[in-house]
Amino acid sequence: MAGFIGRLPRHALRLPILFYRYTLSSFMGRQCRYLPTCSEYAEEAVMRHGALAGSVMATARICRCNPWGGHGYDPVPRCLPAEARWYRFWRYGVWRMPKGPDDVG
């Protein structure tokens, strides 16, 4: 029972993501700059890393998805950043795409 309650926020956040993907997304056009799409990225981040970390990762990805942002393959990180904590939640997101292999932050 405790496991179900612990996963409840993840599933609650998944509902608006799926609603957007199957309703509003078709009206806005399907020209996503990244692969996977932002809604797929958000769903995977929330399900893999939890409600708080996944939401911040999805928000950072949506902020990167703009005409002046990057493009290409951008998967959800397999593990959380080492410097991120619940009280420094903004560190979960990658707010700018690295320019090259040497540019990490």
Automatic annotation (TrEMBL):
For whether the record's keyword set contains Lyase, the answer is no
InterPro entries assigned to the protein according to its UniProt record, in alphabetical order: Membr_insert_effic_factor_YidD (IPR002696)
The function of this protein is:
Could be involved in insertion of integral membrane proteins into the membrane.
Q: Which family does it belong to?
A: Belongs to the UPF0161 family.
Output this protein's name. Putative membrane protein insertion efficiency factor
> What keywords were assigned to this record?
Cell membrane, Membrane
Highest taxon in the source lineage: Bacteria
